[in-house]
Amino acid sequence: MSSVLAIDAGQTGTKLRHLDGETAREWQSPGIRTDLPLVPQLTRVLDDAALRGGRVELVGIGVSGLTDGAADAHALLGTAARLGARSLSLAHDSITAYLGALGDSRGAVVASGTGVVTLAVGVRDVARVDGWGNIMGDAGSGYWIGRAALDAVMRAHDGRGPATALTDVVGADFPRLEDAYIELQGDDDRVRRVARYSRTVAELASTDTVAARIIDSAAAELAHSVATGLGRVGEHESEAPQVRAIGGVFRSRRLADAFEHALLGRLPGARVLIGTADPLDGAARLPGVGDHSALRARLVRAGAVAA
User: Fold this and answer.
1) Rounded to 5, what percent of the chain is helix, strand, coil?
2) d(C-alpha 56, C-alpha 204), whole Å
């Protein structure tokens, strides 16, 4: 069995797993910044892995915010060679999230945490839906829910919307409510800060109609993305398309149930599973994605993987 170094490079942290036979070691390093060049950051991650000792033959890396222009697997393999690596596979973290949840099979995976991305895979085609960040997309994500909560609070404050218990929650953080937008605009951590309100929205959804509407709307957006992705790859015509919903947003039972209900309304035969998946599992599976797979075109590889 080949030894593998799996890397899940996210914005909140980078997780690593070294697999060698039956032995596995895991550790973490700082997250990556998607507004800075990725190759130098990933090079530092690989250098640190080399300093920890151990040899690997294959490296699989899933990266948040990876673009085609930044996917330089050959440059990274040069660094990974210090570990003995003969092959390195690199992909956007939507690919590793998919592989971690469904492996190399057909279906759709929606991963919703602070942000959200949906990936659908058919016989030949792959479709990415959303994952376009908080400025342009991420509908149904934790940030989207938190942003909707803040909007609802300010509408209630202005008299443009109904009263909501969310006002007390936001008001506890911002005693001068009308100054909240100024403070948030100047906070470099504002995306995660806004996203944290999503948990409170979920908690209040059983008693507050405004919170309930936000959660139900998020579920509808997520179901819409999955149905769209399956339609783009032809899996909507499958008798029982596989769907996995993962990420912190789905910890809300109301949202999970509403998502499943909305999706089954569109695709009655879908096999929906709400749960968790480890992107490190997906990163470890990257080297095993063969040329026959629809996912192969969505990853870059340097070096050779033995058949």
Assistant:
1) 50, 20, 30
2) 48
Q: Other CB atoms closer than 10 Å to residue 241's CB: what's the count?
A: 24
β-partners of residue 257 are: none
Q: Encode pLDDT of 18-29 as tens digits.
A: 988 878 899 999
Say if strands 299-303 and 87-92 run parallel, antiparallel, or are unpaired: antiparallel
Residues making up the chain, counted from first to last: 307
Q: Letter for the amino acid at 48?
A: D
Instruction: Give the helix ranges, DSSP H, for 52-196.
Output: 73-80, 93-102, 133-136, 142-158, 166-173, 180-185, 190-195
pLDDT tens column, 99-120? 999 999 999 999 998 889 999 9
The verdict on pTM exceeding 0.85 is yes
User: Which DSSP helix (H) or strand (E) runs through 232?
Assistant: helix 209-232
User: 49: buried, middle or exposed (CB in 10 Å: 19+, 13-18, 0-12)?
Assistant: buried
Phi-psi region of 271 (alpha: psi -120 to 50; beta: other; left: phi over 0): beta
Structure tokens at 290: 């063969």
